[in-house]
TrEMBL record:
Any Gene Ontology biological process: endoplasmic reticulum to Golgi vesicle-mediated transport
Protein name as catalogued: L-type lectin-like domain-containing protein
Cell compartment(s), UniProt: Endoplasmic reticulum-Golgi intermediate compartment membrane
Segments forming a coiled coil: 260-291
């Protein structure tokens, strides 16, 4: 109990922020009588100092479980004393966790003129409240797919909360935020200052203290004075654990107010009070050690379960670093994607360009695209293709010619063999001689043309001997020559046989 009070007292002294900054004219003062936080949140007898809880709520040293993950549970915790300041800021750290994809029903923060029920109809508290409710509604009663939802609902004590529409017609303002099953505890900072109500939300995806984002801000909000703070939760057919880890209240004061309220005298008084508490605590610790030497050793071992400020800072640094690493990795991936797309575009562009030029080319990734510079034009290419076609045609003709010659030779052999002549036909010899002369002349003509290419190029195609024709003639002459030689040998062999 003493240690708890000292904790709170330290906080209260540290949190008397006489802020001289020109930007921040609001003074905050930690209000330990309207706060709870671990460790030693609940005392050994289960009570929470300055607070009262009931229903299915259970308080431990680390948190207050307002409603456990069982069906139809309700619980609440309320301040014992009404607050005695006008403007305030409340930071609620909570965890709503459950095994279901959807959960129920939700949790609510209250500022009301009267303490509500512990088993009421509105998220565990009383309906027809007078004041403010900030509701964290998990379950989508109106099936508009807009839950979990955070909303503020004002009531003057006359209205019933409309569960069927999830309060959509009654809410002051709100925001769609998921607060279930987060890796870190979620947080809400509810600020009421100069009749402006502002709710910030920390989504629990990081452990960073600065990750609050604005849920909503509403101006000209009138709240009754001297209300009670409360927290409540309820489950229905579906059930989540609703755990509140801390509720920290600070009273807010304008610069003038702050100067008046937190006088030097008051600060000295608090410091003195704190020092007295510290002395008492040391004395009690000493006494306890003397009386229970064994238990103290156990307690020292238990200290290992808690982390020091340095350890916590280190852990947060590691978490931030890993977050930065993740972001960098993601960026790296994106840059790679962009480069890949750029490469694709480049190669597509180059192929389009190549097609338009009628030239095959491929762009290499990572290289500047250079267009090939061949010394042929489209016209040259077409001439080349048509010549190729002509060559194929000529070869085909040549083939049929060879077949024809073969056939004629066979006929000749048959007739020659039947004649049984022992000499060479003089007429045939003359023909052969003429043919050989013809071949000779043709070759000479070709040689002459080859030696003067320019002339050949300029020669009109109609009167020139075409390449195909030339080839045809040469082939024919050679074949005839070859056949003659063969015919001659055969005749000689026959003559020898006869002799
Ligand atoms: Ca609901
Ligand atoms: Ca809804």
């Amino acid at each position: 109990m003493i240690s708890f009070r000292i904790n709170l007292l330290v906080c209260s002294i540290l949190c008397i922020l006489v802020n001289t900054s020109t930007q921040q004219t609001v003074h905050r003062r930690f209000e330990y009588k309207y706060s709870f936080k671990p460790p030693y949140l609940a005392q050994k007898d289960g009570s929470v100092p300055f607070w009262e809880y009931g229903g299915n709520a259970i308080a431990s040293g680390e948190s207050v479980r307002l409603a456990p993950s069982l069906r139809s549970q309700k619980g609440a915790i309320w301040t014992k004393q009404p607050i005695n300041f006008d403007w305030w800021e409340v930071d609620v750290m909570f965890k709503i966790t459950g095994r279901g994809r959807i959960g129920a029903d939700g949790l609510a923060f209250w500022y009301t003129t009267q303490r509500g029920d512990y088993t009421g109809d509105v998220f565990g508290s009383s309906d027809r409240w007078n004041g403010l409710a900030v509701i964290f509604d998990s379950f989508d009663n109106d099936n508009k797919h807009n839950n979990p939802y955070i909303m503020a609902v004002l009531n003057d004590g006359t209205k019933n909360f409309d569960h069927k529409s999830d309060g959509s017609t009654q809410l002051l303002s709100g925001c769609l935020r998921d607060f279930r099953n987060k890796p870190f505890p979620t947080r809400a900072r509810i600020e009421f200052y100069m009749n402006t109500l502002t709710v910030y939300f920390h989504n629990g995806l990081t452990n960073n203290e600065e990750d609050y984002e604005l849920c909503f801000r509403a101006e000209n909000v009138q709240l009754p004075r001297g209300g009670f703070f409360g927290l409540s939760a309820a489950t229905g057919g579906l059930a989540d654990d609703h755990d509140v880890i801390h509720l920290l209240t600070s009273s807010l004061h304008s610069a003038q107010q702050g100067g008046q309220q937190i006088s030097n005298d008051e600060q000295q008084k608090l410091s003195q009070e704190y020092q007295e508490y510290q002395k008492k605590l040391e004395q009690q610790k000493e006494d306890y050690r003397k009386e229970h030497p064994d238990e103290m050793r156990d307690k020292d071992e238990m200290e290992d379960w808690f982390e020091s400020d340095g350890q916590r800072e280190l852990r947060q640094i590691f978490q931030s670093l890993s977050h930065i690493q993740d972001v960098t990795r993601e960026l790296h991936k994106k840059v790679d994607e962009v480069i890949g797309k750029q490469m694709n575009s480049l190669s597509m562009l180059s192929s389009v360009y190549t097609q338009s030029q009628g030239q095959p080319a491929q762009a290499q990734p990572g290289q500047a695209v250079q267009m090939p510079q061949f010394p042929i034009t489209r016209h040259d290419w077409e001439v080349f293709t048509s010549n190729n076609q002509l060559m194929i045609q000529t070869v085909s003709e040549l083939k049929s010619f060879v077949v024809e010659v073969n056939r004629k030779t066979d006929t000749l052999l048959t007739t020659g063999g039947g004649g049984g002549g022992n000499g060479v036909n003089p007429q045939f010899l003359n023909e052969l001689r003429d043919n050989v002369h013809q071949v000779k002349n043709s070759l000479a003509g070709v040689a002459q043309r080859m030696s003067s290419p320019m002339q050949s190029q300029n020669c009109p195609s109609v009167t020139c001997v075409s390449t195909a024709m030339l080839l045809l003639v040469i082939s024919g002459q050679l074949l005839v020559l070859f056949l003659y030689q063969w015919y001659k040998e055969r005749k000689e062999a026959q003559a020898k046989k006869f002799f």
